[in-house]
Write the C-alpha cells for this entry.
Amino acid sequence: MADDLMQYDLMAQNALRGVVRQALDKACNEGLPGEHHFYISYRTDMPGVEMSERLRSQYPEEITIVLQHQFWDMEVSDDQFRVSLSFNKVPENLVIPYNALIGFFDPSVQFGLQFVPEGMEADMEGVDMDARNEELLEELGGLMATESTQDSQESEPEAAPQGEVVSLDAFRKNK
C-alpha cells in the first residue's frame, strides 16, 4: 500500500471535530433539546487547555465532563470552546481546544466519536482502538449510572450504553 501523504485520517478527524463543534454551538445557542446531553473526554495536558491547578492535579492526563443541566457561560469558537461547570460545588472555568478531544458521546441517541489528540498519533500506534472504544463506553456507562443514582436515589442505575463509538482505524494504513 502506498504511503498516505495526504493524511486522510487526520482530515477525517478534523471533520469529525467539526461535528462536535456544531453540536456544542447548537447547545450554546438553542439549549439542549429533549434528552440530549454530552459526555466529553479530553486530554488535560494538551496545549491550550485551561483549568484550575486544583482540577489539573486531580486529572493530570484526561477528564470526562458532562454537559447536561448545570453548565453556563458556554462560548463556542472555531478551534475551542469555553464552559463553566461545578466540580464538588466549586465552579470551574474550562477552555478546551478541539484538538485535545478524546471522545464525545450523546447517550440519549447512542452517538459517539473517538479522537486521537493532535500530536499524539505516534503514541497511539499499536493501540487496540476497539479495546479503547470499549473502555470509553464502559467509563461513560459508569458515569451515566453514577449520574442516575445521584438524580434519584430510588431509581436503578442505567445500564452501560450499547452504542458504538466511531473509530477511524478503518482509514489508517497498515504497517
